[in-house]
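URGENT: need a sanity check before tomorrow's submission.

F., can you look over the Zn-dependent hydrolase record below? I want to be sure the sequence and structure line up before it goes out.
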Amino acid sequence: MTATESLFTKLTAGYDESLSRGGVDGGRIAQRLSELSMIGASPEGGVTRPGYSPEEKHAKQVVKSWMEQAGLQVFEDGAGNVIGRLEGMESGNAIMSGSHVDSVPNGGDFDGPLGVIAALEVAEAWKETGYHPRKAYEVVIFSDEEGTRFGAGLTGSHAMTGQLTEEETNLKVDKEGKSFETVIEEYGSSLPAVWRAKRNMGEIELFVELHIEQGKLLEKNGCSVGAVKGIAGPVWMNVTFEGEAGHAGNTPMDDRRDSMVAAGHFIHTVSSLPRQFSETSVATIGKLNVFPNGLNVIPQKVELTVDIRDIHEDPRDALVQAIIEAAEQSGVDHNVGVTCRKTLAVQPMLVNEELLSDLKESISEFGMEPMELMSGAGHDAMVIGREVPAAMLFVQSKKGISHNPEEWTDLSDCVIGVQVLKNFIEKQMERS
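Structure tokens as predicted:
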């Protein structure tokens, strides 16, 4: 049994076939999730498809072929964003839906791809049932959403909306030391082409993204699908402590400039700061590099990352400033230099009440109690949502596991999510 067959078999085992109706095909969804799971598959059972990698590009090519089979006109912009367009019966602005296909290292099979496949399945269902949308419909794959390659993500959606700055791209360097310009050229594009990816967002009436929850609330409440009422905006920072290397045995404790001690004090302080600003604020230090990283050498330099998030912008920004001040104070206390540099700052997004009500109505039509959720994770929807109305649906994640080979969403929940998405989009199609 191949890995693809294994995932397909696991997805379809116990699937409620009655959910495949109205042109939505659970078997097709399972097959497509399985096929994408093979691209960048890792021995541990996950997938590794960094932004602008051959693996991400391969996944996009596969989805492009599906888009063409569904009758969509397909094009790719200079930032690598792929758009499949279905013209409407009337001229005017389009409704857009989609997500991403890149992944974190050894990530799961559902984070991103499910949203792309779901958006495409809506068009597939229309083709099978003969439904002709009143307005144009676009299925989108955004490039480099996860940001693991450069330490700053949402690149494709930032480029499409004109929010990708020259300063930001100049700071993008991957772990191999390649600049963003080099990487984008290897991908088959160029920096001028990336700037040309900026789109007239007035052409888009609405963006809606389906995504796995990456949390446990839907599962705990026995819900397949939930309506997202807001997305926390992340701020990412690189913090560097630089002291002086020395012999671990011959340097007295009171004569050291130990960057590790300064970093450790800072890390401990950060853990207590978020609750001082907001009940929904969080801060995470998830990556740390030590130089020269020797057993018997006092660390000269420590580089670490800080991820700060909140659904409310003012307390989040106040927390960011407090973290910067904590880093600087730790440097003073331990006589080491400190540098703080923001690599990403995205505004939180709140879904407007009318769209939220429509999402909940679509969920209710499938016999479910509509549940409202907040997203602590960042998504392309919040970038697009700064320019046009945006909405988001979450589908249940088992045990809340994500960014992990154990990430799992039952096929029945996936298909219910697609049915709700289709219902919601069709309602928006009929709005004047």
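My own read: The CA atoms of residues 246 and 252 lie 10 Å apart. The first strand starts at residue 73 and ends at 76. If you see anything odd, call me.
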